[in-house]
Fold each of these.
Amino acid sequence: MATQDELNKKNEASKERQRVTRERRAKEAELKAFERQRMGFRNVMSSTKLQREVKAEVAKESERLGLSSSGGDDRGGIYDVSTDNYSQPDNNQVSINNDIANPGIDAIIGSTATSVGGGGDGGGIPDGFAEETLDVVNNDNTAGQRVFLTKAV
Amino acid sequence: MAILRAGPWGNLNSTHEDPWTDFSQFPTHYPVNCAKSNWPNQDWKTVYVLDSDPGGNIYYGTTSLGANVGISGSIYPYIQLIFCYQATQGFDVDFNWTITGSNFAPTLTWDYETIEGDTDSFFNTPANSGTETISLPATTFGFVSAYIDAYKFDGLGSVTIQASWS
């Protein structure tokens, strides 16, 4: 069970967090007001260059107020009550584990990718079979060759 | 779909035979060609039969696509060209002939048959030279033969026939 001292410390920490949050929100409101004021001219601004200038001004003001573009270091973070720390979550994973649209290299689980039917640990040509190159008539009536796996019966 | 090669020689009753080697007698099986193409290890070829006259000289052998063979006779010379083939799609082959001499009457015939049962034939009393185009069907194994002769009805001098596939 926590002692009075520990409770007091936690209360102080909590008050400090609330103060920081209040300050940050005030800065954000100030920045929003600044942005609204600058962007109020947007309707009469046809030049992309001018719009970019306003955005740059807003970014500068944000920097002056100590706000990052994402809205503060702890915004969207995860608060760990045991350590009293905020941390940003890891970026979303982008890999074949999350999205089938991402390319991946299939791995065959097992000792060999080419062994078929009882070949076991050898790989290559299945047991009892041999490669033979045989002539064929191709679809365009020309002569071609194919490699067959053959086995005497 | 590709067709597995038969041959190298054969006939409709036996599609896998060794090449014929004894050309002192009439061959009973023939080179199996890949339509009008060469196989990797066997050029396109046809068996020829050249007969000068009844009771006269008769010659057997093979020749290639586009090559002429010829024979002369004073009564009834003829040339027959025979080959087998495999084809994934139908194709045309030309039988060409030229007959030189006088007082003769030529006849021309051709026929084909496939192992699937397609068959066709033709008979004509042709001009002294010409080309007959034969449209052959796709088949896993087919047999083709063309024949040209010249019956010399005056018994004087000789007549010469030349023929080829192209």
Amino acid sequence: MRPARVSAPAANDPASGALLRVEGLDVVFPTASGGARQALNGVDLFVMPGEILGLVGESGAGKTTLARSILGAPPAPGRIAGGRVLFEGEDILRLREGRLRRLRGHRLSMVVPNPRGELNPTLTVGEQIALMARVHLGLDARAARGRALDMLRAVHIPDPERRMNAYPHELSGGMAQRAVIAIALICDPAFVISDDATSGLDVTVQAQVLGLLRQLAAEHRSAMLLITRDVGIAAHYCDRVAVLYEGEILETAPRDALFLRPAHPYTLLLLAAFSHNPELRRGWSAAWSTAAEPATACRYAGRCPLAQPLCRTETPPLAELAPGHAVRCHFPVRH
Amino acid sequence: MRVARYLLQRLAFVLPQLLGIVLVSFLLLKSIPGDPAVLMLGPTATPDAIAGLRAQMGLDKPLTSQFVLYVGHLLHGDLGTSWQTTRPVLDDLLQRFPATLELVTFSLILAIAVGLSLGTLSALRPHGWVARAVDLYGLAAGALPDFWFALVLIFVFYSAAHWAPAPLGRLDISVIAPATITGFLTIDTLLAGDLEAFRSAVAHLVLPVLTLGLINAGPIMKMTQSTMQKMLAADASRYEALCGIPERLVVRHALRNALPPIITIISVLYGYLIGGAVLVEIVFSWGGAGQYAVQGVLNSDIYPVLGFVLFSAVFSLVVYIIVDLVYVLLDPRLTH
């Protein structure tokens, strides 16, 4: 039983005019025992044109599944069991294969983590960036190469003429990450998903790459879904933030509201975990030691320090606390 | 520069490798019972005559000096004489080796075409009907003996349908063979401008090439299927699909990355088929090198066998060196 979703009246629908709108997205993975595990459970979110939405969550929360499902390609053997992904007025999940292919990488692109594993090892970086312009923009080989070189300059890769002919294994992690950003942005996409793209980089390079990504997204007027495990990244680079936990959105709010007035106990403890205040950090680890229980009505109830009997029997809806600030909790923290 | 140095390193090992191969085959052949002198002189020969012939052939000397003598002759380009054909082994092989090579090369081209395309198709749709048919075909290709398949083809296309020429050699008896330039009849007939002979050579190639090609497509197909499945599921292919790269390009890139193990299988098959084609050669009276060597083994005629081993070894080593160079061309990670 999925809880009824809050459907705001159309007149003041905060998502009206959204570029991307995910509605009630369900993704299931078959399990070895023949059952099915719900990796995403009724996920709703929207991104306005030009906006950066942060998506935070721990490993296994379903972040990558969500990112790939938005592109219509959930990780195997996952299967989209319900919901819609509306992008520029079309439901991506119901598009024909050819139309979907022309959207991917062109209007809707993705920056992947571990780029040295994902780039083709036997094609040069320049060939791979230029291929995007040839396939999606119909440029000839010369024009595509020129545009690829411009992109390498735009992502501040040193000595771009030489790097055009370099193979992925000849690049450092930071440079490969920049090459992947060039691939994602060369076609001026309306929407970019960054899937934990900087997690493999050390902190200073990470800051450079994220700053570059934000700057380029602004220049190209691209909206972005910035997926991360690092709350600090969400705080620095996003306009709004959504918190994902075991396949459910627990809280979504404008950035400042989330960080100043976190309403879900999970959000609160997640912020505490990244806090420099030792008292807060201790609070987080104390909560963590509670062993996870089998599924409860509220998925977080088993680990929640504030859980009440109601939390185990009735699933809380994602309810609006303040304009643009929604939380899935029976007993949200009041400030 | 790197490639040149690599080649030199490889070539430096070729001579010791060849010497080792010759030594092992020499000892193995000498340990086979059977005395060529007895076979040459026939059942009525006197012991004196046999001893005389043995002395004349150097067979009474110790094994080591026989070997040293053989290697000494090798260095002067003398591969010995076959007592069956009474001709120098080198002349025999120069005539027969190209016959085998032509047959094996065309067979391998067919095997590659069939193996690569069926393997790729079945990797693309692992549960489709092509994949199921390919599994069945792979099983059949592995289980059916090639000489049996050759006989079936002869029965159907020569005896019943009369589409193919009689399985008696490389040309019709009425056709005059062209001057030997490459030893490949398909090429020599074209060089001679003799279209009728060319047609005859091709017609005679069809059935043995079908036999060897279809049977040996099996391992190439299996390797292509498994490597392509891995490559299509790899991060690089998945990323290309997420970037909206058309499927045919994703497949082409994956195939290129899947090539090294496929090429390895092809090179092994190439070397193996030089001798492995012998049963098919016999069925089609091909007069190739494999047939020549087997006759040698059966009649204690060791020089043709040693010569064949030497030719095959040199051929295999050349193929392996080429394959190593192809790897370097295919994978930019290897040059650094």
Amino acid sequence: MIAGLIARVRSLWHGITRGHAIDAEMRAEFEHHMELHAADLVKSGVPAEEARRRARAEFGGMYNYKEAGREARGLRWFDAFRISWLDIKLGIRMTRRYPGLTLIGGLAMGVAIALGAAVLTVIALMENPRIPLDEGDKIVGIQVWSIMSNNAERRIAHDLGLWKSELHTVQDVGAFRNVMRAVGAGDGRAEPGRGAEISAAGFRVARVRPLLGRYLLDDDERAGAPPVVVLGYEIWSRRFGADSSLVGKAVKIGGVGHMVVGVMPPGFAFPVNHNLWLPLQLDPLAIKPRQGPVLYAFGRVAPGFTLAQATAEVAAIGERTAARLPETHQRLRPRLLPFAQSWFELDSPETVLVFRAAQVAVTLLLVIICVNIATLVYARTATRQAEIAVRSALGASRGRIVAQLVGEALALAGVGAAVGLTLLAVLAARMDAILLQTGAQSVVPFWLKTGVSTATVAYVIALAVLASLIIGIVPALRVTGRRVQASLQRLAGGHASVRMGKVWTSLIVVEVAFTVAILPTAVFFASESLKAMMTGPGFRAEQYLSAELAVNRESTEGMPGAGDTAYQARSTLLRDEVIRRLRSEGGVRAVTWSAELPGSEQSVQIELDGAPAHLETRTGEGTRWSRWAENARRVRLASVEAGFFDAFDVAPLVGRTFTAADAGPHANFALVNRTFADSLLGGGNPIGRRLRMLGIGQQGGAMRGPWQEIVGVAPNVPAHVDYERPQAVWYSPTRRVQPARLAIHVPGTDPAGFAPRLRAITTDVDASLFLRDVQPLSEALWATHLPLRLIAAALAAVATSVLVLSAASLYALMSVIVTQRRREIGIRIALGADRRRVLAAIFSRAALQVGGGVALGIMTAGVVLRFTGGEMRGFNALLVLPAVALFMVAVGVLAALGPARRGLAIQPSVVLKEE
Amino acid sequence: MADLADLLPGTLDVLILKAVSLGKLHGYGVLRRIEQISGGALQIQQGALYPALYRLEHQGFLTSEWGTSDNNRKAKYYRLTASGRRRLGEEVASWDRLAHAIALALAATPKEAS
């Protein structure tokens, strides 16, 4: 039985894959048969010509036997549904014949396909990244997971020493840390390089030969070894003019001379997206557990071992360490992951759930849009019922007709795929600029490439095929069902009709509901984006130049303790000098700095005096976790220079702004913004109230910062922050921030024009200083809105597609009803009924559908809002939902208008004559 | 002379299996062998043979390969597979039982029927 099954599958496979060859073989076999038969006849005395004729006649119809032969090979079903090139050609002709449907369907499908392919590609790239290096799948990251904080513990210098000496299943174990280093060339100008202080083992793991010279060696890691650097191709060609004699010469890296020992080839950016490599001079065994710099460990699974074996060995070492060092390692679990996964930390159940939800959502969106288009296609077939019935009567099987209609759908989906690919290509072309603007460029690793990849094209094709199946098969099966016979009979009477059944009419209810449910969200995002554009930041941002000023951290300064303090002191000194010189520049009215761009501050938890917060601790399954509950408030913490508000010409609403004395080590003063005062202090007098920061210690204990006294209330700066409710902000004056975000007020001129002067001053003060993101502050603030603008654009595109489709579906439905009831309308009018009343009765069905859809949509939107909550709830409920509902009714009326006019124009005499 | 169309369904299949069991044959050879072993009593509609051959091949009872025929032309030769041989055995046994039953039925006398 199994042998029989295998034989059938094999034969079927041959039939499908070698379709034309099989036909040729059959023909050759038949010809051979007839030749032998003719030869036998000649032997029996029949003349040759006559023998050939008789042989052919006695054999019978070759075509029929070929068909029977294909059927015998189990290919009948395949043949029935095989879409031929002719079907596609017919489909292309149909797209030209119905330009409205092609335009609406193609655009809507294009939007859905582009969105779907983009999301699916990104998820696939994140979940199954392929490291484009020799045996990239063998490169692993070693992570220490803290079950206390549910996060990776990165101070792993001590553990690194253990792994290096004890691991057998992983070779070339090493680590790196990210460093920003100013790279100086002959012109004296310093530029930041994305550097990695990396173990020499990293280059053995990557297995990429240097373009020039050598890569780092173990000897370079020794304490006291001469400083060396390996340059990336891009930095070598751009900053050093691709000087091939550079190897062996010294260049300034972070103000210190380093000998260039090698240049890596183009595209090499291991471990993440680095273009500068320095030796990681670190003695792991000299560093105590859970101390030392933040490190990322890597290695390569040794030949002959599997990832699972290596994982087990790492876990076993972890257990031994935990037993030996319970104080620091009891709640730490080292684990091994494929390198790309260890970088993104994507294996948490929540992330996986989000990915799956996103995949389902984009597929669902495409399905909804395709079901919409299927309605339109079905309505189109109303006009082709006669053609289908005739083809059926002439012997075309149901499968053939379905295949033809699917072929047509494929042509339509092809238009959608082309639109989708164009949209993706446009987005991909802009992606580098977007990454640059949002600052994401520095975190995108080398194994993730922007652009339309083969995988993306494959997704587009797969989604287009799915779309064509939905928009082709369902209507095709409906129109080729048992009604074909009835249609044929009706043809004799001169008219054909398609019924729009309950399923189809309820579909319109669903799509109207969907539009009503999704439009408010789209309108919300679009309006917030507009609002951010209109409101502006609340000060003259276009007059300020913004830049991030960082100070090179030398490796001796990287260690906690004395080195760290020395670095902080040096950074403060250098930054103050830059600011002093800037302030003495002509044309500069003010200079200030803060830790982050205004509006992009980090969020922290605080408690207010008189309302103590409570730390909630839970234990279970050997883990313990804590969180602040009750009176803990989440606010944004802005660490700013004392003159911050004065530099922006922002006057306090109440109290005062900071003075230089407020930034002293023992002064504990705070300013809050208007939202803070209104929402957290209940609008009462905030002056003199106190707040303090809350934290959670390593062992899960409560940590509270010193009390800070509120001395003033500032307006919200910037006035509008993304789509969120304006956030409560706590301003804390500080002197030590690294790197610092400078804001230089240069009124009366384009601030970008001041950039060269800023660079010159910075280089002049110290070669270890470097600048990033030098741009007018207005542009930097605008870039923070970019993700919002992208979301708004995507949602608006989807909402518009669905809206247009709903209107088109309503139009199609009304048209079909009018065509279908033409005779009835004619007779009723002939009998004296009022035209408008006749039509009102017919169109009441449409009104019911639109009404039902709107009601369902409002309910759905209500449920969605209940879950999303927050700012959107008030926004929608009051304004947008009723507006969208009214809009939808208007669309319904407009869609019904054309068919209604056609209905009113029906002449009873003409209709009755047709009968 | 009987046309195979008048015979019981499945008869053609068993005759083809039998013909091929005697040695590998091309399509025309199968036809001639059946005529020969049936003493010319059974004749097959020429082209109708092929769908049956393909069906048996699809079911795994026959296997085929291209070779050169006596007239030096490329021809497709069919051979019996192991499962084809088993199938032929089953079919022959089934025919024997049927023929025996029919023979018994036709030999019945009025005495036996009462």
Amino acid sequence: MSEVILHAEKIDKSFVGTHAIDHVTLDFYKGEIHALIGENGSGKSTFTSCLTGIYHKDSGTFTLLGKEVNAKNQVDGNYQGVAIIVQETGTLSGLTVAENIFLGKEDEFTKFHVKNTKAMNKKAQELLNSYGFDYIKATDIIDKYNFEDRKLIEIVKATYFKPQVLIVDETTTALGEKGRKELFKVMKDVKDDGRCVIFISHDLDEVLEQSDNVSVLRDGEYIDTVKSSDVTTDDLKKLMVGREMSGNYYRADYGEPISDEVVLRGEHLTVPGEIEDFSIELHKGEIIGIGGLSECGMHEVGKALFGASYDREGTVTTADGTQIKDIKTAIDHSIAYASKDRSTESLVINDTIQDNITLPSLEDIKRNHILHAKDERAFAEKYARQMSTKMVGVHQFMSALSGGNKQKVVLARWIGKNSDIIILDSPTRGIDIRVKADIYQMMDKMRKSGKSIIMISEEISELLGMADRIIIMKDGRQNGEFLRHEGLKDTDLIAKMV
Amino acid sequence: MDTEKKVKLSLMNQPLFRTVMPFAGFIFIVVLFAILTGGQLYTPGNLKLLLSQSYVLLIACVGVFMVMTMGGLDFSQGSMLGVCSVVICFLSNVNIVLAILCGVLTGGLIGIVNGFFNVKRKITSFIVTICNMYLLRGMVAYATTKSPVYGVSNITSYNTMGFNLTFTIVILLVAFAVFRYTGLGNRLKAIGAGETAARFAGVRVEKTKMLIYMAAGMITGLAAFINSIKVGSVTSTAGNQLETQIMIALVLGGMPVNGGAKVRFYNIILGALTYKILTAGLVMLGIEPKTQQLIMGIVFLVMVAVFADRETGMIVK
């Protein structure tokens, strides 16, 4: 192997109640793409956040090419040779593209205390062109660009100054085909240049395809490093979970008849700019999968059915004829909705696990019209436990939980509400395999007990694996419908998406 | 230096610290003024006086407490108390029960106006209530231009400790029961901590907000009644700066200014009492009003900094 570029020595970090990374020692080499994998809460992001100055480590040292790295913040990290591209939006609205790229580095263009905006814009445009993103204009306000383009701008921002170590943290889940290609190209450039990429992803196929070596973390501890060419995704799963995982965690049945009983009917749904004349009938005990490209309008369908869309036209009717026009009515008529946007829509992040689970069920928890603290607690504990949420206690704040655990709380809430119609938008986005398997199992159980599910998903394998019926959307309209069938292939679905 | 600062900051986010701190502050103030005034502050006579000055603040705090739990603010309380007092004093000459009813109704109507502009017109509560603070103060000034508005001559006969104390305790108990045992408190906290998420969990956010602004106004109507029977008349300065007193009191009681999940009902009582002892103590020590204001300003700023829930962010709705 070639020379060590970055050495991490006994890195340690604790948050209130959790030991996020436990004395992790790890080497990274010149000219490698080094994947870092592990389940939610295993400490991958904490590790890289400590390196790049997003968090401050409790103890341990990072040594980059013989020099200790001690980043106070991300910009400081950049100057010390490390950069990160994150999962969520890392650009600031209201600023121009150029201002975003050079955020915190304006000094480079400042002479005699005057910022030379023109020079900055020129430099930014040159950089964009050199990456092949010449359709992005440096002087434009960044809000003009969609999520994917903003991610590309972030790639430029994180790599133009040739950092020795580039961290790509869960970025691919947010990107489409084009964005991924660009990202992988940039990663390869860094590698060919003799520098190093630390690649974090939940998609194990992608991990094996892109990386040279894979290191596994579990519960904050370092487990092992393997060569990507020597292992299969099953081997990786085993390392991550610490026990054997069966290869197939989707439901196994095919050809079960669907009940004729319609529990929810959406007719001629239109939301300006999102969906166009979309109709859907959900049957008792059925799982409908809705798929498509991320901008096809499928995410709005969930909101429209839940009564949460602005300006919705068309009708949503439950079996007893109730019109669903607002969220409260939807919940009162046994409809549950877990949004794709977990941190602002699904959960009150700055509140406790207990409050999040009990919020829609407060009226049900009351005894003789009185809400007792003891009952609230018992209710929350019951359903948090049922979902095996990893927590100190139900009084813990949501913000301290990892992504997978947050989603478990969302599901615990709706299981507690005992809703019969469950709308899940991207239920397993950014979630590791063990929790994924739990969620699929839960969905299968719900289906068998007569509950009906609408699963909106960008993951084709999930649609094929779980749905009785798959609706593919394109440009806000239904563009294809498939019944559950063993011979159904991903290419069949993709053909209707594009 | 840097690490030391961080440890301190994270200490303030410890639940235990949040709970203990306002109680410790209360005890500190009590002991401090016991020593400084040589026990003078706590003679039965002075304690009675202290209590008699606390009713209006205690009652008015209840409404603002609920508004602030949702992440809002209400600066119109002082002027609102003035307007309600005018109505109560004026109508007390007709019938005392009618006076109370109309006082409460007036407060409720003003609350609805606050709510309308905040909820329907989507203007932050901070701006709406400051506008109304001036508007209502103007109304009080008009009503009292020639002379103060006098209540019926026997109105002050209600001003007994037994009546006032019972009145205040009943209001606090009812408010507590509603806040704690109907789920209203949970909903308000959820709105304060994350409005969108609360809406997606089935909380009728707009309705709840309107209701709370109205209720806060009605409660101030009740406080205006206590104010009226105590003074017997209304001048143009009635209720002046009550809104700031309320806010300082709540923050002294450990309430995060931006509301949310960390709000506790005892913030009201603890805060109002701490505030009253603090001001009474400063007066007794013979400290000039301008110096008092200076001290209150510093105390307020420090407490806001200590108790703000930084994770929720400084969002005033």
